[in-house]
Design brief:
The chain is mainly alpha-helical and 166 residues long. The chain has 9 helices and 2 strands. It has a two-stranded antiparallel sheet.
Amino acid sequence: MSSEYAKQLGAKLRAIRTQQGLSLHGVEEKSQGRWKAVVVGSYERGDRAVTVQRLAELADFYGVPVQELLPGTTPGGAAEPPPKLVLDLERLAHVPQEKAGPLQRYAATIQSQRGDYNGKVLSIRQDDLRTLAVIYDQSPSVLTEQLISWGVLDADARRAVTHEEG
């Protein structure tokens, strides 16, 4: 492993750890001593090579896919960001409650978390669409077609789903 690659790998390890609000000592405590602070720190600095097995175990400990830790990969492997998914909240208000109730509640929760109450549109992420698909017991592409038919999503949303499932 080149020292440059080791440093990039270490930077990804450090980023994941800090995103989870853990110090090196916190990793050692949370893992009940399985991951020593000095060892994790040396991986993060690129001073010590990490085996594939140990990297997989560390990814599992952090609860992330191994590829998220590898240098040169973008999150989700996407070369370019997929088209945005924008809900038309004004149109959503006109969809019958028995159909749109779960989506309305989900959108209200996102608005509350963001403090975004413009009431006209709401951007959602691919993960939100996947979650909604589970709630509606449909595939993301079928749900997208339903939302387009309600007028809640623009037809461009098809490209986002095709990009995701492709």
